[in-house]
Amino acid sequence: MKALPLLRTLVFPGAILGLWLLLLMIGQAATAPGPAASSTAQPKRGGTLRLALPADVSSLDPARGFDTISFQFLLLLYQGLVEYGDGTELVPALATDWHLSPDRRTYTFHLRPGARFSNGRAVVAADFVYSLERTLDPKIAAPTESYFEEIAGAPEFRAGKSPHVRGLRAPAAETLEIELAAPDPTFLFILTLPGALVVPPEAVAQFGANFTAHPVGSGPYMLTEWQRGTVMRFARNPLSPQTNRQYLDAIEVRVGGDRTLHLMMFERGELDIAEVDDFPGIPIPDFLRIEQNPRWHPLIERIPTGSANYLSMNTEMPPFDNLKVRQAVNYAINKEKLIRLLHGMAATAAGILPVTMPGFNTNLQSYPYDPAKARQLLAEAGYAGGLTVELWCEVDPSPIPASLQYDLKQVGINAQLNPVTFPTLLHSQEQRKTAQCCTSAWSQDYPDPGDFLDVMFNGNRITESGCQNTSFYNNPRVNELLAAAATCPEPAQRLHLYQQAEQIIVTDAPCVPLYQPYSYALHQPWVHGVTLHPVVYFRFERMWLDR
Amino acid sequence: MLHRLLRRLGWSVVTLLGTAFLTFMLLNAVPGDVARVIAGAKASPEVIKEIHAKYHLDDPLWQRFFLYLNQLAHGDLGHSYVTDQSVAEALITRLPTTAALSALAVVMWIALAVPLGALTARFRDSWFDRSTLVVATLTLSLPAFWLARMLQYWLGYQWGWFPIGFFRSLGDLLLPAAALAILFVGYYARLIHTNMVDVLESPYIQAARAKGLSETRILFKHALRNAMIPVITILGMDVAGLLGGVLFIENVFALPGIGTLAVQSVFNLDPPVIMGTVLFSATMVVGANWLVDLLYGLIDPRIKSAV
Fold first, then answer.
1. How confident is the model at residue A6 (pLDDT cuts 50, 70, 90)?
2. Residues of chain B positioned with their CB less than 8 A from the CB of A2
3. Model-level pTM?
4. If you measure CA to CA, which chain B residue comes closest to A135?
């Protein structure tokens, strides 16, 4: 037996390897950064803001990117004619001023002199004509295209009957005219959407479909590196006119991992903001721990989002073609419980519109939690013995679908959950007579009630597929009110029309307004200027570091 | 020999075509509109129609499949519908991370499993053998995502010994590779143990002992080589199919590899990328089969002569 020499042969190299690993670990531990708080009152320049996203942004081409995350990075790279101020008011961006014609159809913008793209060329009015035509081009299939169809001549251009959009004109290098087919009080808001951000035609021609990886704009930052699925880096654009909002030298966005990993890295001081990819911004399971921690509590920013979550019921499919069943479901849902399940990271919802929306109605007649009333309505509808429905929801660890299922069970509705991926859920709920009922959500594109009510409840917008009226709700009176409000020039009267429409919709109960989430930002003590905006949310160009 | 090679090549092509066909059909059976994925949640029905036309989404399924095959025949795996990135480029840029992670994990698990298997065979039924068996059974039962998260949480987040996520240097792969290795080391240690027990009882080992050769020499020169032959087959297939484990590990540690690409493509319902990652994985398995055959011949000349 020669066990000892044999063991020695194996153990010695093992010990060396172990020692090496130990030294490596100690080295890592010694270099792990930890948070250190300090504060200065005045914004200062310098430093790199470190962020993380679970997945790449879909596109950095303003004609193609339209999700919440892409939008925030598009605003680093590009500018439009107008932008949001500190609140939802619009302020000049590349336009210094504008005026509206007496017939309220033609806007004339004067461009900021000296504005330049990051490639050095001056921004001229023709660039806006090009950029808007590009958004309207059917070959591009821009997600925001439909918002700009109201520009005069857009349908002819899209049909290939005209080489240019008649309503887009550049009479001078610094003068842009946009003529609409009909007056639209929300058009300036529409000009804040990605499809209206200006790009230089020569850069688009140079990079073609790969423009997304080589973006050229006039925004405060430039893309310096994009390793897909790995990292994005932005550096200050020296040619941007927004010199007062470029405190950060650079922004580094690591791509990959999930919220749990990002929060761990944040707590180790390796990220400057915990989560920027989605609402609510802090992983729900960690929220209580973070909020009750005195170290982090003062560093949490909170804002009500311009978004809302619903339980949509397909009014064309039984049993939800019956008003009493829909109202019964509204009475059956315990919304306070939902808020508890979300650890208070959302507010209860009575109506369709989020609390941040102009025209939010505090006197709306809605449905209190009343299971007895729900059972009574179901009995009146002929379902005293109960009924079974299929509830489509997203396959994620959210406690909401299970809670809805439980509440419905209490009143005799057996809701069978059908968890699917988000694209499948979207497709199914937008397909006519497919999803009986489903969880759904909508967030504002711009702060106007029409962006919710007209999109989700206008019966004239119902299509066989791709329909955003996911309840397939069609009430002629509501359609009339929405049409009248859409063109009403008088703001107060307009909001009143929307409030009337909302009350009828809530009474008709095509959905259950469930909750309106808050958005959170958890940042390091050395990050300043993290004020969440009600539409844009994160405005990285306004942040500064005193690390 | 040539006939055999051609036959194997033919079967490999059939396997890959079959994989492509099945994946394509399954993808199209999933309810969900790819156009909605491309255009985003808020695109109008008109835009959705335009995208259907652009990507031939309304064409008959067989026509689309042959269009895809034609594209493949020209070496084009297509572009991601979500990011517009070339699928081939996405795979190539992510391959080094996955390859490095896999290679490091294989080195780790073999470096541990071989001595463990050999020693537990040599000291069979000792406390060392029994405790190794218990630990091996435990590691076999661990779910990859749980083990990865626990190692990340305790060794990285709590104790700060390792970086906990993202890839900046090869050192960042140590913990993920260890997580992957742990999942396999127990199984391989037991596999080698079983083979070694058989081999150590062979007459030629008895003869070697009778000749007075050292136990180390017998174990690692004469016994291990024979005990490793079946292991090589399984190792080849496991390495090729490693994407299953890599998928979880890469996602937990935010490594930009093919595993994260595969997961993201599924959640995004991005057919070209899903097809690309599945075909990549299938090609690895087919390639590994060939490689295993080749290694077999190198290790055991009798098999080489048979081939």
1. very low
2. 214-216
3. 0.83
4. B47
ipTM of the complex: 0.83
Res B302 pLDDT > 80: no
In a 3-state reduction of DSSP, which class is residue A176? strand
Interface contact B109, partner A, CB < 8 A: no
Q: Look at residue A24 and tell me whether its pLDDT is greater than 60.
A: no
Q: How far is A283 from A44, CA to CA, in rounded Å?
A: 31
pLDDT of residue A278: 61
* Residue bearing tokens 């029905």: B45
* Minimum Cα–Cα distance from B178: chain A residue: A21
DSSP A388-424: EEEEEEESSS-SHHHHHHHHHHHTTEEEEEEEE-HHH
pLDDT digits (tens, 9 = 90+) for A159-198: 999 999 999 999 999 999 999 999 999 999 999 999 999 9
Q: Do A426 and B44 touch (CB under 8 A)?
A: no
A264 contact residues in B (CB cutoff 8 A): 152-153, 156-157, 164-165
A432 contact B CB<8A: no
Mean pLDDT in chain A? 89
In this complex, do A6 and B216 lie within 8 Å of one another by their Cβ atoms? Answer: yes
Q: What are φ and ψ of residue A156, in 5° steps? A: -65, -40
Cα(B190)–Cα(B137) distance, integer angstroms = 9
Token pair of A546 as six digits: 């005193």
- Residue range A135-149: average pLDDT? 91
Say if B36 is an interface residue toward chain A (CB within 8 Å).
yes
CA of B97 vs chain A CAs: smallest distance (Å): 11
A529: left (phi over 0), alpha (psi -120 to 50) or beta: left
